[in-house]
Amino acid sequence: MFAKVKSSTFIDALQLQLTTPKGSCLRGILKDDKGSICRTLERDIASNPEELTWTGLNDLPYGRYTLELSQGVDEMKMNLVKRV
């Protein structure tokens, strides 16, 4: 596991704690409960460990989401909920 979400619920941003190696690339896809891609993220990791805040999620509708993260060949999925 190369990332942790500080909370599985969010309002307008996601806080991620990364344990990926310095110089690697992190890719993220946020999908709604129907499987449609709502947001994507691609970030080069400058330090290890790093805290990343994924902002700009305030206009998404409330509901359930799936966060898919990949770093090289490693992949992980997390279920999230956007609340008021």
Would you kindly provide a written description of the structure presented here, covering whatever features stand out?
This protein has 84 residues and is mostly beta strands. The strands form two sheets. It has a five-stranded mixed β-sheet with strand order 2-8-7-4-5, with no helix packed on it. Strands 1-3-6 form a three-stranded antiparallel β-sheet, with no helix packed on it. Helices cover 0% and strands 58% of the residues. The mean pLDDT is 89. It has one domain (3-82): Macroglobulin (MG2) domain (Immunoglobulin-like). 15% of the residues are buried. The protein has strands at residues 3-5, 9-10, 14-18, 25-32, 37-44, 50-54, 63-71, 74-82. It is globular and about 35 Å long.
Describe this protein with a few key phrases.
84 residues, mainly beta, Immunoglobulin-like, 0% helix, globular
